[in-house]
Structure prediction request, 121 residues.
Amino acid sequence: MRDTAPSPKLHQQLVQALIAQGTSHLYGLVGDANLFMVDAYIGTGAGRYVPCTHEANAVLAAIGFAQATGQTGVATITHGPALTNVVTALAEAARGGIPLVLLCGDTAPGDLFAEAAGMLA
Prediction:
């Protein structure tokens, strides 16, 4: 008999990996590209999600957590400009040798200009 249980979705697998690695805090700013992952993380009750008001704040909070605890800091942001908003904070972590994981969304290549094309029509 074949197992018919559906495979976990990518956001569920990411959350399982975070929990398996002992991630106790996830800092972030929710957007359409990371909404399901953040919801799944909160739903497990295995850690604390700390909402932030800006993408750079999320990364800087994760850096502070890593420095204070010696654990890896973990942050999540959405796609597009959100990634460019964290460049300086990422440079700070890299220069300081601070352990950090950043999970960010992506836009499918076919969707890159879909909204703009609709506005032009």
Observations:
- The chain is about 45% helix and 15% strand.
- Confidence is low (pLDDT under 50) at residues 117-121.
- The two ends are 52 Å apart (CA to CA).
- The first strand starts at residue 25 and ends at 28.
